[in-house]
Specification:
Oligomer: single chain
Number of helices: 9
Number of domains: 2
Shape: globular
Distance between the termini: 25 Å
CATH architecture of the largest domain: Alpha-Beta Barrel
Keywords: Lyase
Family: Belongs to the class-IV pyridoxal-phosphate-dependent aminotransferase family.
Pfam families: Aminotran_4
GO molecular function: 4-amino-4-deoxychorismate lyase activity
Bound molecules: pyridoxal-5'-phosphate
CATH superfamily of the largest domain: D-amino Acid Aminotransferase, subunit A, domain 2
Structural class: alpha+beta
Number of strands: 14
Protein name: Aminodeoxychorismate lyase
Strand content: 25-35%
Radius of gyration: 19 Å
CATH class of the largest domain: Alpha Beta
Largest sheet: 8 strands, mixed
């Protein structure tokens, strides 16, 4: 088992400590590229097909050359195999416009250990603060160049929101639009429980379509949950039976405190955690 893995899109396993990017790579100087983060479990990249589809859509939004999905799948599988089966890992697929001076796009896959906060969030849940995102739910449609539905490498504001929340001792953030609608987390999708109904805001409101939420919705119907896409207000979070932040590596993080208010754990919480677990292992496995 490796402690870190680096594979380039040409299928070469590289030394993860050796320099890879040139100083003028547009990933480094402009954040001009796209990426995916996913879980490696049992030596396999989970929900890889959902991530490859989103990588294609993100690349299209940025006018990057169409990703060669076969090469990406092979590189991801090779990297997961190199990582091994002993522990879960966090995989990144990174695809930038390449060097400012010209040439091919930059494309590589890495795997590393899960951040400490991941196990804590899974086991104990998280405290969350709602923060203004500073724009309307309409922005995605009125200003497509804002790339709201694409997973771009420009995550500085998302990271700044998390640091801001940390100053108030919150583990995570739920962004709210200028109309006061619930959007998403800086690195997660919001899903609420209302009885046996699961609700998430529609991606048309200028948020990233989450692969974990999608995988959950694919399996939850058979488990007797109704799954809906509907606009939500912060009051819907407070009056819900449970608020979850879903994401590929952490999977299901239950919000135990929202803006200082303690949220009780519903009788369905364990079931939801198991469903997400089953979903990421069964939906979108390699073709
Ligand atoms: N929304 C944003 C802004 C994200 O960065 C992420 C994940 O990184 C998500 C939602 C959740 O997506 P996924 O479940 O595919 O990890």
């Amino acid at each position: 088992m490796a402690d870190r893995v680096l594979v380039t899109l040409d299928g070469v396993v590289r030394d993860p400590d050796a320099p890879l990017l040139c100083a003028d790579d547009l990933a480094a100087v402009r954040g001009d590229g796209v990426f995916e983060t996913l879980l490696v479990r049992a030596g396999r990249p989970c929900t890889i097909e959902l991530h490859l589809s989103r990588l294609q859509r993100s690349a299209e939004a940025l006018d990057l050359p169409e990703p060669d999905v076969v090469k990406w799948r092979n590189a991801a599988e090779l990297a997961a195999k190199q990582w091994g089966t002993e522990a879960e890992g966090a995989m990144r697929l990174v695809y930038s416009r390449g060097r400012e001076s010209g040439g091919d796009p930059t494309a590589f896959v890495t795997v590393g250990p899960l951040a400490e906060r991941v196990q804590r969030a899974r086991a104990d849940g998280i405290s969350v603060m709602t923060l203004a995102r500073g724009h309307s739910t309409e922005l995605g449609q009125t200003a497509p160049w804002q790339l709201l539905g694409a997973k771009t490498l420009s995550y500085a504001t998302n990271m700044a929101a998390l640091r801001f929340a940390a100053r108030y001792e919150a583990d995570d953030v739920i962004f709210v639009s200028s109309e006061g609608r619930v959007l998403e987390g800086p690195r997660s999708t919001v899903v609420i429980e209302r009885g046996r109904t699961l609700i998430t805001p529609p991606a048309t409101q200028g948020i990233l379509p989450g692969t974990t939420q999608r995988a959950l919705f694919e399996v939850a119907g058979d488990a007797g949950f109704a799954c809906k896409y509907a606009p939500l207000f912060p009051a819907d979070l407070i009056t819900s039976d449970g608020v979850w932040l879903l994401s590929s590596v952490t999977l299901a993080a239950r919000v135990h405190t929202l803006d200082g208010l303690v949220m009780r754990r519903s009788a369905r919480a364990d079931e939801i955690v198991s469903l997400v677990d089953v979903a990421v292992e069964s939906i979108g496995a390699s073709k």
